[in-house]
Structures are given as C-alpha cells and as structure tokens.
TrEMBL record:
This is Myotubularin. Substrate binds at residues 312-313, 373-379. SMART domains: GRAM (SM00568), PTPc_motif (SM00404). Keywords: Cell membrane, Cell projection, Cytoplasm, Endosome, Hydrolase, Lipid metabolism, Membrane, Protein phosphatase. It comes from the Eukaryota. The keyword Cell membrane applies. PANTHER family: MYOTUBULARIN, MYOTUBULARIN-RELATED.
Amino acid sequence: MASAPIAPYNSSPLGNSSSQNASRESLKMEPLADVAVLPGEERVIDKDIIYICPFNAAVKGKVSITNYRLYFKNTDSETPVTLNVPLGVISRVEKMGGATSRGENSYGLEITCKDMRNLRFALKQEGHSRRDIFEILFKYAFPLSHGMQLFAFLSQEKYEENGWNVYEPMEEYRRQGLPNSEWRVTFINKNYELCDTYPTILVVPYKATEEDLRRVSTFRSRCRIPVLSWFHKENHAVIMRCSQPLVGMSGKRNKDDERYLDLIREANGTIKLTIYDARPNVNAVANKATGGGYEGDDAYQNAELVFLDIHNIHVMRESLKKLKDIVYPNVEESHWLSSLESTHWLEHIKLVLSGAIQVADKVSSGSSVVVHCSDGWDRTAQLTSLAMLMLDSYYRTLRGFQVLLEKEWISFGHKFASRIGHGDKNHADQDRSPIFLQFIDCVWQMTKQFPTAFEFNERLLVVILDHLYSCRFGTFLYNCESARESNNVRMKTVSLWSLINSDTSLYINPFYTPESSRVLYPVASMRHLELWVTYYIRWNPRIQHQQQSPVEQRYKELLALRDQYLKKLEELQLSDSAPSSTHLTNSSTPNAATANQHITHLQTPF
C-alpha cells in the first residue's frame, strides 16, 4: 500500500556516533525524502533493487531498511510504486534462487508477511549481492532472535495523552456496579501468586473466601479460576471466565470447585448455571488424556454444559493460510465462492459469533454463565468480549472498545507474543494463530449488520490489526500482565491508544447513534456473513480504489456543513444579544434551546 510522503529523515541523537556515520558513508545513504521517520528510528541500509510487483510486473527502485521498517520506492516510471512495511509484519525471509539460477529476476529475496501479502525482490547475480541486505533484514525483522530490543522500546514518540491510562480496572468495575452485596474485589493475585497469567485485580463471589480461591485454583488449568468479566446491572446475571477443570482420565472431582460454581449460581438466584465450553465435544473429551476435561453432570448437578464447537488454534492457523492463498496476489474470479468456502474461514467466524450470541442471550434473560475453552485465553476471550460488545453499548464507543481490549484480551492474558511471534524468527512455531484477528473480523461483521450502533469505524479496526504486528507500540507485546510488568512496558513504551486518541476524528463513524439499553444480536448465518475484503484483499490495487464509501464521504460532508451552519447560528445569536449584558444573560437559555432544536432537526437521518 502506498505511503504518504512526509518529512525528511532526521537522525536521532542516538545515531551520531562516528562508527555509524562511517558505515552510512560507505553505504552512500541518501535522505529518506518520502517517508515519515519516527523519533528513535535509525537508517541501516539502502540498496538498488527490483521489486517483483504482482500487479505491475518488475519495478526498479531503491529499498531502505531502518530499525523499524522496509521502505521501497520505484525509480523507473512516472507512476509511483511504494512499499512501507513495518519489520514486525514480516514472518519469514528467504533467499530466492542461487548464483547459477537462470531466468530474469530469479535471484533475490522472498518475504512472507503476517498481513496477507508476500514481497519478492530481485538483485543482480554478482558477488553475493544479496548477502548484506538478507542479513540486515533477518536481524532487524527478528530482533528477539538476535538479542536485540523490539522497536517499541527504542521509539521516542511523544503524545499529549497517555494511552496507558485508558483502562483502570477499579474504574471499569465501578462503572458496572461492582463491588456489591453479591460480588467483591480481591487482591489475592497482587503479586501474581495465585495465577501468573491473570491480572492483579479480580472480582469473585462475595461468599468465597481467599482460601476457597486457592483451593479452586489447584483444580483449574494454569490456576485460571472462574472470575467475573461482566455484571448485568438490571438482572444481576454475570459472565464468568476461566480454564478447563483438571478432571483427567480418572474423572477426578473437587468439592471446592463444585461449591464455588454453586456460589456463582446462587449470587442472583440462577436456577441452573450454564457452562459454555468453547471446544467441540470430541476435543474436550480428548483433553482428559492430558489431565484436562470438562464439568460432568454427576459432579456439577446444578449446571448445564453446552459445547460450542469452535476449533482450536491449529485449525484457525490453517484456515487463514488457505484464505491467504486465494486472496493474494490475485483473486480467481471463476471459482471464487467455492474457493472461499474451502478455506472454512467464514464458517469459523460464524461459530464464534454464534457462541457469543448464546452467551449474551442467556445473560440477557437473567441466567449467569461460565465460559471456558482449554486454558481460557483464546476462544474464551473471543466469546466473553463479543458477548459484552452485544450486551453493553459502552464497549461500542471508541473509548469503551479500547477498555474492552485492555480488559478481556490484554489484562486476562491472551498470549499475544506466542500467537503473533513478535520479533521471533521461528515462523513455523505451532503456537502462532490468528485468534485476535478472528475476533476483530467478528467485530467488523457486527459493524456491517449494525452500521449505526458503533461509534468507531473500520479504519480503527485496521489500524489495531496493523499495530498488532508492527511492534511500534507496547500495547500487544508479551503474553500476560506479569510479563509486561517485569519488562516495564508502561514506562518504556508508548500505548497504541496514545496514537488513536491524539486524533479521534479519524476513527469516528459518522452514522453512529447512541442507544444505551439496546442488546445487539447479529445474524450468524453464512448468508449474512461476508469476507472483509477491505482488509484481506486491500493490497490489490483494484480494492484500494474502492475503500472510501461514497455514502460515508457524502455524510461526512453534510455533517461538516451542519457544523458550519450551527457556528453561523451561534454567531448570529451572540450578535443579537450583544447590546446588553443583562439581555445576554436573560436570553442565553432560550437561545441554547433554539440551537438545540436546530441540532435535532439537522440530525434527522436522510
């Protein structure tokens, strides 16, 4: 995707040593005139190269690599061809061809990216011409594999607002109406001693003692006990999240765990507690062989167990791989629908959404629920956060959505480092999986079905995904809160929300209409789901031209026009009331009312 031309490169104070100057001299570096170089970003190498563009054939140009990005600009035609790729997006760098390879542009580099594109560059076959660029790219794309820091720790960006202050756990629990006579806040995990992948502040049943919590933790995988995610202010039903019980092949029982689930059920008088196990039944049974399992009827008599049939991280990884094969670089029009169906991607989206709808519906009807998968940090996070998005309009605001991600994904230990592989060269790692991408896709599906219900727009979702990979911000680094704390992420890196909240106008949905009590139930059927083309196929030039909706553009223009008229109206009212300050005071209220009447009238949907 083309990048906007911006300010010339300015070397940071860190880059003024004589050795670096000498190396720059030898590489004959020129200023990066077309790229915004970030504070803390350092130039490493420039190279004449050929970009094998899948849309425009081979393009000659210059590639520049910094400690943050790969930037390419063509030099051989009037039509600009640029690439601006954060190095964190790269999952694999390979050499293409050898010294004896025949054929034009057969010798070079092949780069696999995490954001649905691949890049190929060709060089002249002479004197190991690719060795330097390959080694530098490999080193800076995978800094953790080379004992180096991720760029987020080198960045010196400054923003007025500190995005790390967006989520304050106690503030969020108070907003929900907690603590109260049924639920209490516990600091038992303040040193991560109960569970090292949970946050320090947890909400648990009022009647559960600290000793109860310790006993329950011994019977839950990774000690991830059932804790409160969301509280329904009207009917007092709750969403609890946890990991699987450690039942094992012998069908072990734990009286403390059984009693604890009864306390959750009794808190609002739920007759039967519903336990949503995200896994397919067969997988849950298979987990018994490794010491896991599920809540059996005999042990948990006041609970109903529902399997949601959502597949594991390995199935999702393969599904996305198949999707990438059919969307990049070219879309095969003739077999498009059957090809898309064969990836099963939308089928997985459907199952995740369908599970979240069941959770939201049960809670809305007054029954408390417990949600878990195996470890409670992948499918569980998808289900709780989507159900909360359906139930609570606050999370559908720009700020509230940031709180939702910080709470349900970041603080509760979704393994971002393992699932994304930040700075790690091991591209075949079996822990990698697009679980968070899948969640954002589900959110996008909801915004399509309810275009006026969300304060934020599609751009926000794309920017979040881009910086999930970029390593420019500390927000998505590491696997859990305790790891972020020990690496001093809040002090040493910038939050993504600092960037977002520095100019919120870019991320606002002009069609947004606040509705505080509305529960959203999206239709999770294949007929109503669609591929998120403007994300998955955005690198195709044909798609890039279609990205701005003409209706949205026109609506923004109308809103701007409305603001102009309101400003003029205000000026006229002020000039009318100017002669006397007494008159101004007396007339201020009716004037305000008149302005409001105008606003109401102008906001009427067209």
